[in-house]
Design brief:
five-stranded antiparallel β-sheet, two-stranded antiparallel ribbon, 7 strands, 0% helix, globular, binds zinc ion
């Protein structure tokens, strides 16, 4: 599951020495960091005016909050209950930090 920000493709370029491109379907191209594998963007050639940017890849990821869920028809059966699971601040080698 990922959070994406839909933005106007005008004026946005995904570039850099490590950006790799991958066609995940006949009309969809994804970019990701070729060094660490982080997803960066999705663009559908049928909707070239829209670009979806991975919120987690933004320098200020907290500035862009999700507004809705999509592809619920494909969700994993436990997803709706996952919001009630215990929450921890960090993962440490010797356990979870509360
Ligand atoms: Zn990277």
């Amino acid at each position: 599951m990922m959070a994406w920000a839909g933005v106007s493709a005008d004026g946005v370029r995904i570039e850099g020495d490590t950006v790799s491109r991958f066609s995940s379907s006949p009309t969809v191209e994804r970019t990701f960091c070729g060094r660490c594998g982080t997803s960066l963007s999705i663009q559908d050639r049928d909707y070239p005016e829209q670009l979806y940017v991975a919120i987690a890849a933004l320098e200020d990821a907290g500035s862009c909050a999700p507004e809705f869920h999509i592809w619920r028809s494909e969700r994993l059966p436990w997803l709706d209950e996952a919001g009630d699971l215990p929450r921890y601040l960090k993962f440490k080698r010797d356990g979870l930090l509360e």
